[in-house]
Amino acid sequence: MGSAPTYPTYAGAFRCIGASCEDDCCHTWTIPLDKNTYRLYQNFPAEKLGSVVAEYVSVKTAETHDNLFAQITRNDSGACPFYTSGRLCGIQEEYGPQLLSSTCSIYPRVLNLVDSRLEGSLSLSCPQAARDVLLFPNSTQVVSDLLSGAFRTDNYFTLASNGAGHVHKLYAAFHDVRRCMIALVTDRSRPVWERLLLIGSLCKQLDEIPTDGAISKVFAILLDYHGVVGTERGRSEMENLPTDLALKLRVLFKFVSERAQDKTCGTRFLDTYWDFVAGIGSSEGATPSEDVERMRSAEEFYHRPFFEERPYIFENYLLNYMFRTLFPFGRARNADFVPRSIFDEYILMATQFAIINGLLIGVAGHFKEGFSEEHVVKTIQSFARELDHDPMALDSMVEFMQKTNLGNLFGISILLKN
Length: 418
Known about the structure:
- By secondary structure, the protein is an alpha+beta fold.
- It is built from 17 helices and seven strands.
- The chain has helices at 35-41, 50-56, 90-95, 102-106, 127-134, 174-185, 192-207, 215-226, 235-239, 245-261, 267-280, 288-309, 312-325, 342-367, 373-389, 392-403, 409-416, and strands spanning 31-33, 57-59, 70-72, 109-114, 117-122, 157-159, 331-332.
- The strands form two sheets. A four-stranded mixed sheet has the order 5-4-6-7. A three-stranded antiparallel sheet has the order 1-3-2.
- A hairpin with a 2-residue loop joins β4 (109-114) and β5.
- The model has no long low-confidence stretch (mean pLDDT 89).
């Protein structure tokens, strides 16, 4: 199954807009510090940030990984103690970008090492990164230099291992699986929800291959799904999968309201939440069926026309997600790694997309003809930032879907179809 592997490098083109950014990456995060940078910080004179290092930088005694050796804790205002009144990094101002921690130097770039080659995608928790990815056709095909020296490259993720206690995946087929996923995501002969359900069906079949299964079985499955692209195959089966807008709305409210009520919730997501509520949420005395009708109307008159004119937005989101997370195999080499099956990786992706799409329907219903690309950026960025700040939220998301019997193609169909 022939052509060369797809290695994303578009992260190298990202440029931080600094103090002009409407959000910042220096609040509410405890920043990990690699061992080498920690040792360099110990040499700072007291009058040149050394006193700040002494107070706020500490070794993580329970951690053995060099990239997670120490941490920079937040000050009383919830900000990085090196964050200046000019909304810039004090370390970068005083010592230059080469003294930034690997986390600060790389963010919002996400680096993965696959087959000894570096890949670079973007975290959409950064507003400018979200613009770069979402708003331009073919944004994930931009070719740039990941080894330019403009940022560090010593902190990267890898494909999740097949080691003891981990789920089995046929890694020899990774690039072939990725090519098939890309073909399905970009198949504009189908609505996005249908493409995602086809991807779910593919993930389910890949998961069901026995651990001693031959690689030829994977290739046969992929060949079959490549044959679906651009055709009517499977259309009737997808259309016959269930819809339940009332249940979809209840699940959506459950996820977003819990996040909004969390004490760590950021103001940008709270803004998005209330815009969503204004577009769909019940007015006093309204019935649940009226909420559903408002959602249906917002999707039909404001959300759908907007995205039909910009089909690349959701495609870019999904491709970036796949590159960033090494979907559907998963990525390791971080403190929050959880081994998941291929289908559980799919449930995680599809659920996040369903929540984002539901939020966008509500926001579109609120702003109506004024719904814009900046509303899309803010909605997706603020949601991504909430998940980046709370890794446990991903585990609870998968757990909820499984416990409520929604963690299957029928359940995902309910969340995705309009």
